[in-house]
Amino acid sequence: MTEPLGAKAGEGQPRGERGFPAAGASTAMEQLYQQVILDHSRARSGEGELEAPDGESFQVNPTCGDECTVQVRVADSVVDSLAWTGKGCSISQASLSLMYEMVDGEPVAEAEKLAETFRELIHNRGQELEEDKMDLLDDLGAFTGVGRYSARVKCALLGWMALRGALAQAQHSQA
Question: By the 8 A CB rule, do 160 and 86 touch?
Fold first, then answer.
């Protein structure tokens, strides 16, 4: 659908909370979100392996075959280094890439808070969260619509489950 000259993208679309397009509305913002996911699935940030990680977790989605391994090094309660390897759909790979960008170098408590907020978003059935939580998620907000498709929920959360396991292992090994 082409916007009339001078019209703002999404103008005339059903609006949800905070003025964002309602679920199901096809807009320039949804296209931007799709582009963020495609870009990160193609140019993956943080893909690789760490030497001597403090924690590592392998996860697989038996429904579709997506899999990943997340490795972390933790120093002074900070995710000092994070790396991942995996194969799967664009949603799982983009989620891992954005996870790396948002978590690497952050305090463990902030990484855990971000992970919980992302899980909340994905389980929110395609609806945005409160403004402060969406601000925290930043580009991860691109995954808002994924929650409308139950078959894709595990894809988006796969890397985050691996992160949870890797951080738990790292914290246990340092105790």
Answer: no
| CB distance 68 to 158 below 8 Å | yes
Tokens of 132: 């402060």
DSSP state of 75: E
Do 62 and 128 contact (CB within 8 A), yes or no? no
Handedness of CA 124, 78, 105, 57 (dihedral sign): negative
Output the pTM of the full model: 0.81
pLDDT, one tens digit for every residue, the chain (175 residues): 333 333 333 444 444 444 444 555 557 767 767 888 888 888 899 999 999 999 999 999 999 999 999 999 999 999 999 999 999 999 999 999 999 999 999 999 999 999 999 999 999 999 999 999 999 999 999 999 999 999 899 999 999 999 999 999 999 888 7
Nearest-angstrom CA–CA distance, 27 and 83: 34
Contact 55, 168 (CB under 8 A): yes
Task: State the CB neighbour count (10 A cutoff) for residue 120.
Answer: 14
Q: In Å, how far from its chain's centre is CA 76? A: 25
Q: Which domains does the chain have, with CATH numbers?
A: 17-174 (3.90.1010.10)
